[in-house]
User: Fold these one by one.
Assistant:
Number 1:
Amino acid sequence: MKTKSAKPKPRRHAPVRVAVIGAGAIGADHLMNFQRHPSAQIVAIAETDPARARAAAETFNVPEIAADWRALPGRDGIDAVSIALPNHLHAEVALAMLRAGKHVLLDKPMATNARDAARLVAEARARGLVLMVGQNNRFLPEVQTARRLIDAGALGDVYHAKTAWMRRAGIPRIGSWFTQKKFAGGGCAYDIGVHALDRCLYLMDEFAAAAVSGQTYAQFGPRGEGDGAWGKSEIDPSRPFDVDDLCVALIKLKSGRTVLLEASWAAHQAEPDVNGTQVFGAKAGLSLPPLKLFKNSKTGYTTELVNTSCGAPGDNRMTHFVDCVLGRAEPFVKPEESLAVQKILDAIYASAASGREIRLK
Ligand SMILES: NC(=O)c1ccc[n+]([C@@H]2O[C@H](COP(=O)([O-])OP(=O)(O)OC[C@H]3O[C@@H](n4cnc5c(N)ncnc54)[C@H](O)[C@@H]3O)[C@@H](O)[C@H]2O)c1
């Protein structure tokens, strides 16, 4: 598919007129956060479920409901869209919106394969539009403070990291689109592994991988066990569970540094939810959350709890996106970074399927 060349669109003056596409579980979070921005105006909701659409429009005082996202690209009076749809629709909808000149906030994962993700990056760049994947973990005070400490040299040379999001019983409802490959693209790696990976690569300030070895498992979902309560879409119990509920990967970055990634929707483990990152440097190491610094030396071992209460932006990907559209900020999550994350996720699945290490260009 060729990218049309187009003049960069000047960014908007306030208000930024936003349409939210998908009013399911996370769509409500999109709506709530756009409502918080004094220069954002939510002008439409696109949602196929009429009752869900009506309820969201009433709660957030939205004047227009579209019964499907396809009604929006040709419509004037919309500057930006926020996409909270099942994964298989991300790339298609985002591409249509970018081609129609709309700025796009896209929930994770960016797409269901790196080829589609690359198309989005090219289209947004060619048109001068904001395209940002809503990696909310990056906005956390612990992550922000940790990145500042690493940039300031507190860890010395960083050479390795471990990052994980391991749930004990948190499959986002067996029988929903989340547990079917044709709608979700992948299982826990795409759903929560993406957060752990993105957060870790952001801390290391390196996104390009040289090689990936991965393995995936499905021990709980196929037996109907490990169910969680997330998501609003319909359930069809007859749908086969054909995605991963645990994944593990060793990622070698271009610099030679390494990342160990673990993600699970369901596992026999003590804690209900383990979601954190450890970064290892030559001078010190850190872990989060909570943010702690560790030093191991001839004179002994020290551990320090770091205060993260100052100067961090908080979980505000929607308000930040509006600021980007207004030209007040540059996207904090760059589309090229999300493309690199997508390439690694694809490589994990390719490695699991082939039993080999996947080398990336
Ligand atoms: N950033 C995060 O922390 C986070 C958390 C949860 C989910 N997500 C992501 O957000 C996306 C949505 O997840 P969810 O949990 O809200 O799922 P959900 O199933 O609760 O909601 C999806 C909504 O999309 C609607 N929809 C489906 N097809 C449509 C179409 N053609 N036009 C308009 N609406 C349509 C459904 O009716 C449903 O209401 C997923 O990609 C998921 O990975 C991100």
Note: The chain has two domains: 16-137, 158-281+337-359.
Number 2:
Amino acid sequence: MENRLPFKYGKLVTEDFFVNRENEIAQISSLLMSKINVTLISPRRWGKSSLFFKIAKELERKNPKIKFCFIDLFKTRNEREFYEYFASEIIKTSYSKWEERLEQAKAFFKHLIPRFSFGTDPTQDFSISLDWEEVQKDPQEILNLPEVISQQKGIHLVVCLDEFQNIAHFDDSLDFQKKLRAYWQTHQHCSYAIYGSKQHMMAEIFEKKSMPFYKFGEILFLSKIDNEHWKKYIASRFRKTGKKILPKLAASIAKTVDNHPYFVQQLANSVWTVTKETCTQTEIDLGLKNLLDQYDLIFSKELDGLSNLQLNLLKAIALGEEKLTGKATIKKYGLSSSASVIRSKEALVQKEIIDTFNQKITFLDPLFKIWFKTIYMKLT
Ligand SMILES: Nc1ncnc2c1ncn2[C@@H]1O[C@H](COP(=O)(O)OP(=O)(O)OP(=O)(O)O)[C@@H](O)[C@H]1O
Ligand SMILES: [Mg+2]
């Protein structure tokens, strides 16, 4: 029997916490192996970061020439921070010894004069700072690093840029994107995997013809994980910890939260915690109730930020109304006019409460949807 908790959420999932994604792994791996850039878009917490770590691990194991470098743009607020972080991470990934990093960095930078700093653990804490005035004049030496190193070392660097939508917040973002694109599109020996949430921002960056990253690579939209896989996973995690659950109930846990990866793991954990030996519907209900209680305050606050019209529209969506701009729906929910429905919908999308999938408007957070219907609207 295992001692650790059998479900994991809020962190990257690996090994036995990682469910399926076989098709995505095969497709993305083959694109990257052919040096085709990949862009992956999905709402928050559907499993983008975990997927790329998994792909990296598999490809690096199979092919010693491939090396993944992970760059999380969540940590960078402007162009200057980006360049320093980018250069540091590319060099850190490509060379393991600090002497080598120093020596190589000095060789690569001919115009930009780098300064180095090492922390208490020189294998981990290594960073480069650069003269911003010089970088602004020409960032070429930095942006070409992946290509130059790949070529020189005879390796294939895969540069993974996570939370990429963050660059939309940089000053002069468009200009910056143009610079990235101008250098990166000439690269032949390395490739780029770009992913992020905030679907609308990502779609804007990659799908608009007028934007620099248009047709930079293959654009993929991540889907959720099928109920069948969750059913097996949940049942096996219960079994491993000496508890029982029928496959049908395991499937129903995942279905309750629309098979959303993060929430399936979270609800399964909550149900597992209240299960002594055998899980029945009672334990599922209790596990769900505990989660709803836990989030009550946060969800209430979320509603405080909505106008009455937005709230009414949310009710109509929660009840599965499809013709939101139809006269009958407008009257029934007090939505004022079709123009105001459209405005409210836009606002709810901006606030990341709802989004459109396969032409259907849905709540992004399945737990919030349950709370909204059962606690707020008092429907059962
Ligand atoms: N393949 C998977 N198998 C099992 N659980 C998963 C899987 N992918 C994601 N999850 C669940 O979803 C959570 C979020 O995963 P991850 O951080 O990889 O998603 P993300 O899309 O990168 O999220 P964010 O948008 O917040 O960066 C994980 O902690 C885990 O609970
Ligand atoms: Mg992520």
Note: The pocket of magnesium ion (ligand 2) is lined by residues 48-49, 162 (CB under 6 Å).
